[in-house]
Give the backbone structure.
Amino acid sequence: MAFVTYKESIDSLLGSLESNYFYEKVFLDDALGHTLAEDIVA
């Protein structure tokens, strides 16, 4: 079994995170059950 390098493992990890990243803008009333990507500011 061959080991992967540190750089290869980081690239693989970051690649999987980028492909699963999704966001959408919704009205505050419709945001129930969603996870915030950024803080809410007034």
Observations:
- Residues 1-42 form one domain.
